[in-house]
Amino acid sequence: MPCPSGTYSEQIGLTSESECTDCPEGTFCVAGSIAPINCTVGSFAGPRSTLCTPCERHTYQDEDRQGSCKPCPLGHNCPWGASVPLPAACVPGTYVVGNFTNEDDCTHCEPGYECPGGDSQPSLCRPGTVSEGPRTSQCQECSAPPNRIGSYQLQGGSTSCIDCIAGHYCPKGATTPLPCKQGSYSNSTSLTSDSECNRADPGFHAPTGSTMQFMCAAGTYTKSRAQGVCSRCPAGKYQDDEGQTGCRNCTAGHFCKVGAPIPFPCAAGTYGPHEGLGSHHGCLECPAGSRCIVGSARAEQCLPGSFAANPGSSDCTVCPSGSFATASGSTACTVCAPGHWCTSEAQIPCAQSTFNSRSGSFDQTDCIRCPERTTTQSDGSLSQSECSCAEGYFFATEEYTRGRSECTPVGRNESTPCCTCPIGARCQGGSRGIGLPQEAIAIQNLPIRPGYFRLSTSTVDVRRCPDSAANCSGHAECPQTASGCAGGNDENMCRPGLTGTFCRSCMESQHYYEPATSGRDPQSYAHCESCRNVAGSRSGAILITAGCVTVAILLGISVFYHLPVPKREFVNDAVQYLIEKQGIPTKIKIVIGFYQIATRVETVYGITLPEAVRKMMMLLRIAISFGIDGIPLACVGADGYHARLVFWTVVPLVVVFVVTCIGAAYALRRTLPCFRAASQSESKEPAKPKGKGQMGELGELILKLILLDSLLQEKRACSHFELSLPETCTNYVYFRTRLRLRRPHPCRR
User: Fold this and answer.
1) How far apart are CA 197 and CA 212, in angstroms?
2) Residue-level pLDDT at 504
3) Rounded to whole angstroms, what are the CA distances from 582 to 331, 578, 579, 591, 594?
C-alpha cells in the first residue's frame, strides 16, 4: 500500500501507514511519494499538504518552499498568485472604485477606515486603532502619537480614542483598560504600562485596579511594599491600630486569637501569667486564697482581713466580725481567742490592765479594765484573776489597809489591797492583787532601793540615808550609790559589816565606821575598818594632817618667841591692830559660824548638795574642826552615845584651857624682861605690857569658835520611824549620832 497523500517515506518494507512521514511546511506530497515536493514562488503550503496554494490577492511570495504569503506593501498591487508586489494604481489614502484607468478613478478614504492605496479597498479600523480624518492610509494605535497617551478604543471603525480610567493603564493599541496589578494603585488616567502604577507602602494594601492604597485594618498588617492583601495577626498577637507593619505580643492577663484587633481579657476567676496567649485555654484558674478579676495577669493574694476559700474566686470575702486573718492569701478566718479583740486583719491582745474571757470579740471595749490600782503582768490576760497591784503600789492585808489613806483611792471611802508605794521602794507591778498567790510582793518582801533604809520588813516607813548621794554625781540618789544602805528585801539592808539605823554602825567591836565617798574603788563605799588600820585609813590621814598642822603652829609660836625684841614687838603690834582696830576675831567668828552651819545643812535638813559643793564642804568641815571630827572614838573605848557626848563636851573645855594657859605664859614671858630692865636702870620706867597676849587671845577665840556649836549641830538632829505591826503601832525616835539609841512614843495614826 502507498503512503497516503500528504505523507512520504524513503524507506522500503513499511508495515503500516503510521510509519509514513508527514510532508513538511512549504512542500506537498501525493500518494506514494518517496520525497516532498517544494512549492514554487507565488504559492505556499502548510504541513501534510497534498498541493501548493497560490497567494491570495494583496499578498505575494517571492521565495519557494514557504508556509505563508507576505502582505502586499503600501503603494503596491498584488494580484492572485503574485510572486512580487506590483506598483499600485491609487496612492495611499485613496482607493479605486471599479477599473482603474487613471488617478481620477481613486476616492479619498473615509474616517474610521484605512486605505493602503493601489488596488486595495478601504478597511475598517480594528479595535484599539482609530482614523480621525479622510485620506488615512493606516489606522493609528491608541496611546501612541498622534493620539493621546493613555487611551483605548473598544470598538472598530472609531475616529478617536477614550481616556484610560484611574487604577488602570492602557498600552498601545489597547482595546480595554488593564487594571493595575494587586499591590499597586494609581489615580492617573494616562498610564501606558503596569510599571507606572504606584506600589503600596508597608502597612497598606491595594487590591487589583485600586486608585489608592488602603491602610491595613486593626488586627492585620503588611511588612513589605506592593501587598494586595493584609496579613492577619497570628494567635498570641494583636494590633489595635490601622496601617501597621507588625503585631504586638498579647499582654499578660489576656489572650489573642488570629487577627485579634485587641487583647481579650482572661475571665474573672482566671489569670494569664504570660504574654502571647493564643486562646482562653491559656488562662489559669485562680488558686484558693487569691482573687482574679477580669484581665488579671497574676493571682492577687487576699489581703489580711479577707479570704477566698475556693479556687477560681474573682473576689475575696471580708472576715466576719469576731474573726481575723493576719496573713495574705488566707483560705479561712480564725476566731478571735480569749484575752484578745480582733479587727478583720489582726488579733490584738487586750492591753495591760485589761482582760477578756470571751472568744470572738471584735470591739476593744470587750476588754474589761482591772479594778483600780491593779494591772496585769502582760497583754492578753484572760480573767480578772490575772490582775495584780500596778506599778507604784504594793499588796497589803485587809487588817493593814483598814483606815489608811495610802490604801484608799481618792474619792472612795473603802480601802483596797493595793497601797501607795513609799518613796525609796521599788513597786514595779505584779504585787499580789485580786486572786494572786500570797507570796507575791507585799510589805514583808517590799524591795528597797539602794540608798534607802527601813527598820524592819514589817514597816513601810522608808527613809533616804544621809549618804545616799555619795558617788551619784550630784544627784540625791542613784543605783550605784556608795551608801552603806544597800537596799533589797531582806531583814538586813546594810552592806556587809554594817548595822543600825541608816547602816552607820559596825557589827564587830574594835571597828570604826568609814563614811562613803565618791569613786569606783571598793574603799569608797561605806564600810567598817579595824582599829588596827586606823593609821592607814582616811580618818588616820586626817588626824595625821591635823597633828602636823598643830605642830607647825606650835613651832611657829616657838620661833616667834625667839625673835629679837623689836621684831616681836612689831608682830605683836600688828596682831593687836588686827584684833582691836580691824575686829578680825569678830569677822573670823562670823565666817566660821557660817561654815559651821553650812557644813551641817546636808545632815541636819536632809538635802543633797552638788558633788563639787559636797567635797568643798567636807574639806571646810575638817579644816574648822582641826580634824577632831574624824577621830574614830570606837577605837578609844568611846563606843556609845553617852561616851561620845561626854567626849565632845569635855574636849572643847580642855582645849580652851590649854590655849588660855599658853596665852598666859606668853604674856608672862613678855613681862619678865621688863622687870629685869627696871632693876638695872632706875632712870628707866618699867615697860608695861601692851595688853594681854594677843596671840593667846586670838588662838583662844579661834578654838572656841571651832569647837563650840559646830560639833553639836548634828547631835540635835533626830529621825522618827514608825513601826506598824498588826498588833501594835509604835513611834521610835533615833538620834542620828548614836543610831542605836531609841525612845518610844505613843502611837500616832
Assistant:
1) 10
2) 82
3) 101, 5, 6, 15, 20
Q: Which domain holds residue 590?
A: 537-716
Nearest-5° angle of CA 29, CA 30, CA 31? 120
Q: What sign for the dihedral angle of Cα 590, 592, 593, 599?
A: positive
Q: What 3-state DSSP class applies to 307?
A: strand
> 257, 246 in Cβ contact below 8 A?
no
Residue owning grid cell 498577637: 237
- Amino acid (one-letter) located at 88: A
∠327-333-335 over CA atoms, to 5°? Answer: 115
pLDDT in tens, 659-697: 777 767 766 665 666 555 555 544 444 444 444 444 445
The answer as to whether 654 is a domain residue is yes
Secondary element (H or E) of residue 411? none
Whether 429 and 421 have beta carbons less than 8 Å apart is answered as: no
Task: Return the amino acid letter for 23.
Answer: C
Q: What is the 3-state secondary structure (H, E, C) of 262-315?
A: CCEECCCCEECCCCCCCCHHHCEECCCCEECCCCECCCEECCCCEECCCCCCCC
Number of structural domains found in the chain? 2
pTM confidence score: 0.44
- 376 DSSP β-pair partners: 387
Sign of the Cα pseudo-torsion (225, 229, 233, 234, in order): negative
Peptide bond into 146 cis (omega under 30): yes
Q: Is residue 665 part of a domain?
A: yes
Residue 565 covered by a domain? yes
Would residue 644 count as lying in a domain? yes
Residue that wins the pLDDT comparison between 740 and 230: 230
